[in-house]
Amino acid sequence: AWPKLEALTLSHYVSMDETKVPTFHGLFSLLRLCPALTLVSLVIDTTKLDGIDLQYPGGGICNKNLKNLDLGNSYIESPLNIALMLSALFPNLEQVGLGCWDKAPMKYVSEKESALEQW
């Protein structure tokens, strides 16, 4: 664990077809082990919400320090569920970034509009 870690950048863009990406369960573990985080940049699979209580995600884990969250090209199926999760996990969140779309390979540009609409 890195209890004093304040910023973590792991990825902005991954090919979802070829790469296993963390889920919200992994994000819960990260928050538990690194409570001082103020910035996280990480692509996660937001579609796997199995076993997560949307009213009490992560068993009550809450990071009041995190202000900036960059989820890169994380795919989203249910904007409402993700909004519920993020607001419970990060009550002081100021920004959710999706900056990877400026750097994504051209073959994925056609997916950009539909992906950004979900966010």
Distance between the amino and carboxyl termini = 31 Å
Estimate the strand proportion. 5-15%
| Contiguous runs where pLDDT drops below 50 for at least 5 residues | none
What is the succession of H and E elements?
A: EHEEHEH
* Discrete helix count: 3
Q: Main β-sheet: number of strands, strand sense, barrel status?
A: 4 strands, parallel
What is the total tally of β strands? 4
The structural class is: alpha/beta
Q: Would you kindly provide a written description of the structure presented here, covering whatever features stand out?
A:
21% of the residues are buried. This protein is of the alpha/beta class. It contains 3 helices and 4 strands, in the order E-H-E-E-H-E-H. The model has no long low-confidence stretch (mean pLDDT 83). Helix 1 (24-33) links the parallel strand 1 (7-9) and strand 2 (39-41). The protein has a 4-stranded parallel β-sheet, with no helix packed on it.
Give the topology, please.
Blueprint: E1 7-9, H1 24-33, E2 39-41, E3 68-70, H2 79-89, E4 95-97, H3 109-118
Parallel strand pairs: 1-2, 2-3, 3-4
Brief summary of the model shown:
The chain has 119 residues and is an alpha/beta fold.
Which terms summarize this structure?
119 residues; alpha/beta; 4-stranded parallel beta sheet; 3 helices; RNI-like protein
